[in-house]
Amino acid sequence: MPSAPPVGVVIANYNNGAFVGRAIESVARQSCRNLRTLVVDDASTDNSDEEIRSCLSRLGDSRFDYIRLDTNVGQTGAIKRGLSRLDTPFVGFLDSDDIWYERFIERHLCVHMNADFPVALTYCDSHIIDGDDQLLAGTAWWFEQGASANKAFEAAIVPRIDAATGEFAFPANGRLTFHPHWTPLSATNSMASMMFRRSFVDLVLVVPDNDLRLYLDYYLSTFAVLLTGSIAIHDALYAYRMHGANKHSNAAVMGGSYNSSTKDWEPISNHILQLVQRILEEEASSIRAAFGDWRHAHSKALVKRALDARSNSSKGAWIRFVDALSTRAQALFGGGRSGLAGQLHREH
């Protein structure tokens, strides 16, 4: 049987000296050993450089390399610098304040190799932890948002606490969902939740660094679902850290569909969608060559409609009215997202 391909990892860090060592160690512990990892420090002003060098020296792992930038270039620029030193067919990007669990890469790689349909992106649920690695929530509520508001919780989603260690233990559920269609409400998870095909990233990651200093996860995941669809892994395979100084998620875990950030998301998402729209135009020939004329045209139409719907024009008002009726009809007659435990299925 064929063997598993190598996976590349980029850990882009800026002023996360308190956490970056734990992020690096979580990659070193991966059950899938065929890795190449680039740690990129984006001109941090804290003790990050010292912490990174100390951690890498302690590990003594030849699969890790380190780049320290003299000038801050932002998340996208730092990740690009790491990618330039990688030639693996799959890549993942671990935020330097988060932690991957041991089977993160193994599980993602296996899902990418499913015998149903290949996609550019897999992403997973996460636990939410604080700066001391203590659990704040057993899921990211925005993961697979859109499910029915009234539902029974399965006993398997409730963790146990190990009496000896005080640690939580969550059972695996194995559930996967294939999402072939993009909508403005499509929700994945943070950058650390994702694994991409490298060829896809090379195709669409052509924006200047300063145009996308943050929110690369939203840019890449939007493109992935538009052009190939995505697969959601319903197990939490990593810990997303909310420590009060996150670049985006700087709020508190209140419960419910709490705001994870004090920032206004609409202008941020509008900017990203405008970038996607621009690249669909500028890279039209290469995207059409990869995915065909229809997929390219359909993607352009979906993004244009999403941006039109947010405008103050009469067209925008009409689109919002139609969408509201559609949402109301789905609530009355069903049609929310669903998934079958343990198997991949498609939404139609």
Describe this protein with a few key phrases.
348 residues, two-stranded antiparallel ribbon, single chain, alpha/beta, 12 strands, ten-stranded mixed beta sheet, globular
Notes on the structure:
This protein has 348 residues and is of the alpha/beta class. It is built from 10 helices and 12 strands. It has helices spanning 20-28, 48-59, 74-83, 104-112, 198-204, 216-227, 265-282, 284-291, 293-309, 314-333, and strands at 7-13, 35-41, 64-68, 90-93, 99-100, 121-129, 135-137, 160-161, 168-169, 176-179, 194-197, 230-241. Strands 1, 2, 3, 4, 5, 6, 7, 10, 11 and 12 form a 10-stranded mixed β-sheet that branches. It has a two-stranded antiparallel sheet with strand order 8-9. α1 (20-28) runs parallel beside α2 (48-59), α6 (216-227) packs across α7 (265-282) and α7 packs antiparallel against α9. It is globular.
Q: Which secondary structure elements does this structure contain, and how are they paired or packed?
A:
Blueprint: E1 7-13, H1 20-28, E2 35-41, H2 48-59, E3 64-68, H3 74-83, E4 90-93, E5 99-100, H4 104-112, E6 121-129, E7 135-137, E8 160-161, E9 168-169, E10 176-179, E11 194-197, H5 198-204, H6 216-227, E12 230-241, H7 265-282, H8 284-291, H9 293-309, H10 314-333
Parallel strand pairs: 1-2, 1-4, 2-3, 6-12
Antiparallel strand pairs: 4-11, 5-12, 6-7, 6-11, 8-9, 10-12
